[in-house]
Amino acid sequence: MALGEKMLGALNEQITMELSASHSYLAMAAWFESQNLPGMATWMQLQSLEERDHALRFFDFVVDRGEDVALGSIEAPQTKFGSALEVFEAALAQEKGVTVAINGLYTIANTEGEYEAIPLITWFINEQVEEESSVDQVVEDLRRAGDDAQVLLMLDRELGARQGGE
Ligand code: FEO
C-alpha cells in the first residue's frame, strides 16, 4: 500500500466532506436566488465549484498514490434560512469544521509518517485561512448592514463581482 489505512481513510473522508460542502453551498445559492439576491447566489455557486475542485485535489492524490477512492454519502443540506447573515454564518461554521478536519489530516500525516501527503495538506491549511477570512469579512459586513436594504443590495452587487478561481 502506498498509503497507510489511517491516512487513506481520512483522505477519503475528506473527499466526501468537500463534496458535502459543495452541495451545501449550492443549496445556499438556491436560497439566495429565491430571495432575489443574484450576486450572493453567484458567489455561492462559485464557492460550490471551488469545493468540488478541493474534492478533486484529494481524489487525484489518492489515485496518484495507487489507492482506491471510496466516496461516502452526502446528507441533504440546509435549504431554509432566515436572512443573508444567517447563511454566511452557516458558511463560516462549515469552513471552521473543514479547518478542523484539515488540521486532523496534518496530524495523521505526521504521526503516521505519510510525508508525501504533507505538501497537499499544507496547501489546504493555507487555503482554509483564506476561506475563513473571506467568509468572516462578509459576516462582518452583513452584521453592520443590519436591516438596511440599500446596503444589502450594494453588498449583493459587490459579491456578484466575484470571479471564478478565487
Ligand atoms: Fe474546501 Fe471551503 O473548504
Give the amount of beta strand, in percent.
under 5%
According to CATH, what is the topology? Ferritin
Global Rg: 17 Å
pLDDT < 50 runs, ≥5 residues? none
Which CATH architecture is right? Up-down Bundle
- What count of helical segments does DSSP give? 5
**Gap between N and C termini:** 35 Å
Number of strands: 0
What is the H level of CATH, i.e. the homologous superfamily? Ferritin, core subunit, four-helix bundle
What general form does the structure show?
elongated
Count of spatially separate domains? 1
Describe this structure in words.
The chain is an all-alpha fold. It has one domain: Ferritin, core subunit, four-helix bundle (Ferritin). It contains 5 helices and no strands. Helix 1 packs antiparallel against helix 3 and helix 3 runs antiparallel to helix 4. The mean pLDDT is 96. MU-OXO-diiron binds next to helix 1, helix 2 and helix 3.
